[in-house]
Amino acid sequence: MSTPCPRTRIKFCGLTRQADIAHAVALGVDALGFVMWPQSKRAISVDTLAMLAAEVPAFVTRVGLFVDADPALIEQCAPYLDLLQFHGSEPPADCARYNMAWIKALRMRDDVDLHREAERYRAASALLLDAYRPGVPGGTGETFDWSRIPAALAKPVILAGGLTPDNIGHAIHQVAPYAVDVSGGIEAFPGGKDTAKMAAFVHQVAAANQPR
């Protein structure tokens, strides 16, 4: 019997509308991200999070994105989330204090040592790797040099940064990530997803997962 090709999981981030959630769920997306960083164009309030989270069915993961947030905000959001995503300079102890599963985003500075960071954040469920731009914690819409990702890393890799329906197939073939995370690459405008781009992205991921 042949070994099945690993399935790359998909996270759509920056959801702000019920219709986009319904479409993502219909496409079989694995996780939906909600931005709780006020400075983002895709930020939502806790009340909006509660409303949108109620639209997400079982077995689809609800992820809250935070950037050096006040613990009180995270605690307010926690009842509506399944997973926490930290995009700031949070040390491991701060990420782990909420008794929830969490992932740590790392911006790919020139001097980042992914093996060292994987050991430092060994309690994380995965590491999310994003492009680096000074002063911007994520959502740059830019890619980085994927060859910088070690083939054998101690944590699962979630690939982010500038992914689109046009480049996701190449990204999966080169990196073979556990999951991919897309926001701007499937949008009509910040916070509003484009249904055709959403479908195209999912289709390209599925195609890349087929044996070559």
Automatic annotation (TrEMBL):
It holds the Pfam family PRAI. CDD domains: PRAI. It comes from the Bacteria. Pathway: Amino-acid biosynthesis; L-tryptophan biosynthesis; L-tryptophan from chorismate: step 3/5. The keyword Amino-acid biosynthesis applies. The keyword Amino-acid biosynthesis applies. Belongs to the TrpF family. This is N-(5'-phosphoribosyl)anthranilate isomerase.
